[in-house]
């Protein structure tokens, strides 16, 4: 049981962490406006094509995805800072979040793509792809330009006096000429550095016309200088290089876990935990499958009409099953090996593995306490992260891109994806980097702190590809979280760290729906996922089964029981145990290929005088 002093300490730290998050991070999240949902966006796109443009979209399939502009967010944060970025976005009516609705037909180039503001429902971009030999009436460049200006005036209240012509391009085809015109807004030059010739960003509005048809247009797009794009790519390369270090380390850990499972395949802990670990692996595979189905809209959107849809789908599904199998089976070995190693190197820390709960119960008030503790740990993690980012932004030039927080909007059921990412990440990562890595490090290094430090660093720098710049900072921040989680794991067990990790990931995956402006359904469904562990804890509280640990023992199948009776008859008839060391007899029989479980039970039964099974 957790003492009152411990509850008081964790509650105090959690409260302080909440204050830190509310003061340092919450203002950076509340600006997100997702008032327009997917269904509304589709209806807006259809109405625009049919009623405003007069297009016939009969026979067209459609797919809808939610899109953000991370490069724009990154550029403005780097050049202006977060507060000034928000002012810039409001002042110039610029959008970071929008829906894209694509209408297409199999094996045909002709398609429509409509971009809709997620905040207001305004159509802020459009593309109509047509065949290269499609015919349109001819016209001169000046006539085309005036038609585009008139269109932009009607569509966006465009005032040419506030803009300067940035570019005009004509493209000749066999049966038409396309004209593209773009204008930069006057007095908007956002420099990202004081270095000479570094370039500055400009707000661009433009359109493409062919004959009388506007083939494409866009409103207030931030034209980012190539120098920044190259700088950003160099930053990302640092993250990719650090991620390579992580992959190598992870493969080494995976190899080590396979080795330990092979050499301890007859270990009683491995035998006891095996079915649970297989079930956990199956559960993770099902989560990956559900994630694939839930995100199928993105797969539809990415379909290239140059091939048949059936062949595209076959390649995509085949790749998914291969990847899902590798990812999910990769957690089976660390879970088996981690349980066996924990039993050896930390025999007194029983709650640091699933084995303790399998031999007692998952439904007790002790488990309820561990789940509640997980909520406090998650809040402290959020506070640690907020403080780390604030320190980095103030003293190390750190900047964080937040537009990814609405990434699940494309999914059919966004809250399901939040649950899946939380459950799969918390289970797989806590098993690999707490249950297995710490116990493996302790066995070889004979030092708990070094084991924790190495496991936390490897785990931390596995997150180096996230959009936090400079990209080495993300690994450092997550390493700090790893050290804290490792302390909780070794002191209070595996349940609090899994719950905390789950809540941490779910919170950030659904923060846009919880803290920004979004439909009520998204808010309450996201809140329900966050409360799910507490509901499970409530069941454990009221069931309150006794925490009485059962002795580890072999559980034999029919085949093993048959062999057990044969071996017992052999041992009795030959009086093998009369004047011999049972351990020596055991080694001799096992060397002839007998199952360890059968041998141990046979010797035990003969010694205790038990009959047939």
| Helix content percent band | 55-70%
Q: How many structural units, i.e. domains?
A: 3
Q: How many runs of DSSP E, i.e. beta strands?
A: 11
Strand % is 5-15%
| Head-to-tail CA distance between termini | 40 Å
Structural class: alpha+beta
Pick out the low-confidence regions: none
Radius of gyration: 31 Å
Write the SSE topology.
Blueprint: H1 4-24, H2 38-53, E1 61-68, H3 70-80, H4 82-91, E2 97-104, E3 111-117, E4 123-129, H5 141-156, E5 163-172, E6 177-185, E7 190-191, E8 200-210, E9 213-223, H6 226-263, H7 268-294, H8 296-301, H9 309-345, H10 355-358, H11 365-395, E10 399-400, H12 414-445, H13 448-461, E11 468-469, H14 472-492, H15 494-509, H16 511-515, H17 520-543, H18 558-574, H19 582-590, H20 596-608
Antiparallel strand pairs: 1-2, 2-3, 3-4, 4-9, 5-6, 6-8, 7-8, 8-9, 10-11
Helix pairs in contact: 1-11, 3-4, 6-9, 7-9, 7-12, 9-12, 11-14, 11-15, 11-17, 12-13, 12-15, 12-17, 13-14, 14-15, 15-17, 18-20, 19-20
Short description:
Helices cover 60% and strands 13% of the residues. By secondary structure, the protein is an alpha+beta fold.
């Amino acid at each position: 049981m957790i003492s009152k002093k411990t509850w008081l300490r964790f509650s105090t730290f959690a409260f302080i962490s909440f204050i830190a998050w509310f003061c340092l991070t919450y203002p950076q999240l509340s600006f997100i406006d997702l008032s327009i949902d997917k269904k509304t966006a589709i209806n807006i796109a259809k109405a625009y094509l049919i009623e405003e443009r007069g297009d016939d979209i009969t026979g067209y399939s459609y797919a809808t995805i939610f899109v953000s502009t991370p490069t724009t967010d990154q550029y403005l944060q780097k050049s202006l800072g977060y507060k000034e970025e928000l002012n810039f976005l409001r002042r110039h009516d610029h959008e970071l979040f929008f829906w894209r609705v694509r209408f297409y037909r199999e094996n045909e180039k002709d398609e429509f793509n409509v971009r809709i503001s997620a905040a207001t429902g305004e159509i802020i971009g459009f593309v109509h792809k047509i065949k290269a030999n499609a015919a349109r009436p001819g016209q001169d460049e000046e006539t085309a330009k005036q038609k585009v200006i008139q269109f932009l005036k009607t569509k966006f209240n465009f005032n040419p006096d506030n803009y300067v012509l940035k570019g005009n391009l004509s493209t000749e085809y066999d049966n038409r000429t396309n004209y593209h015109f773009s204008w930069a807004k006057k007095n908007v030059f956002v420099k990202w550095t004081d270095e000479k010739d570094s370039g500055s960003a400009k707000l661009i509005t433009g359109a493409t016309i062919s004959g009388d048809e506007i083939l494409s247009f866009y409103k207030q797009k931030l034209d980012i200088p190539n120098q920044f794009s190259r700088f950003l790519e160099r930053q990302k390369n640092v993250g990719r290089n650090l991620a390579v270090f992580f992959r190598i380390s992870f493969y080494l850990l995976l190899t080590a876990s396979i080795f330990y499972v092979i050499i301890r395949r007859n270990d009683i802990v491995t035998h006891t935990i095996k079915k649970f670990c297989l079930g956990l692996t199956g559960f993770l595979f099902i989560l990956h499958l559900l994630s694939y189905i839930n995100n199928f809209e993105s797969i539809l959107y990415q379909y290239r009409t140059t091939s048949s849809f059936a062949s595209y789908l076959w390649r995509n599904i085949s790749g998914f099953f291969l990847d899902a199998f590798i990812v999910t089976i990769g957690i089976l070995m660390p879970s088996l090996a981690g349980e066996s190693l924990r039993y050896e190197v930390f025999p007194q820390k029983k709650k640091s593995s699933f084995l303790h709960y399998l031999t007692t119960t998952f439904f007790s008030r002790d488990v309820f306490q561990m789940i509640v503790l997980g909520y406090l740990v998650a809040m402290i993690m959020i506070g640690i992260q907020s403080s780390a980012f604030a320190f980095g932004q103030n003293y190390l030039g750190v900047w964080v891109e937040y537009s990814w927080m609405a990434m699940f909007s494309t999914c059919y059921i966004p809250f399901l994806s939040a649950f899946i990412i939380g459950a799969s990440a918390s289970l797989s990562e806590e098993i690999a980097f707490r249950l297995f890595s710490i116990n493996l490090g302790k066995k070889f290094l004979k030092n708990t702190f070094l084991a924790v430090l190495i496991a936390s660093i490897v785990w931390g720098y596995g997150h180096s590809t996230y959009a936090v710049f400079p990209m080495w900072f993300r690994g450092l921040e997550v390493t700090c979280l790893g050290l804290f989680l490792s302390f909780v794991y070794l002191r209070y067990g595996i349940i609090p760290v899994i719950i905390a990790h789950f809540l941490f990931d779910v919170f950030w995956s659904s923060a846009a729906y919880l803290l920004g402006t979004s439909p009520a359904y998204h808010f309450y469904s996201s809140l329900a996922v966050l409360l799910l562990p507490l509901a499970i804890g409530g069941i454990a509280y009221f069931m309150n089964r006794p925490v009485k640990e059962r002795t580890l023992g072999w559980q034999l199948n029919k085949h093993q029981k048959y062999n057990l009776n044969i071996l017992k008859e052999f041992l009795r008839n030959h009086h093998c145990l009369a004047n011999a060391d049972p351990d020596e007899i055991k080694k001799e029989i096992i060397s002839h290929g007998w199952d360890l479980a059968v041998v141990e039970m046979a010797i035990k039964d003969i010694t205790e005088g038990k009959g047939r099974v």
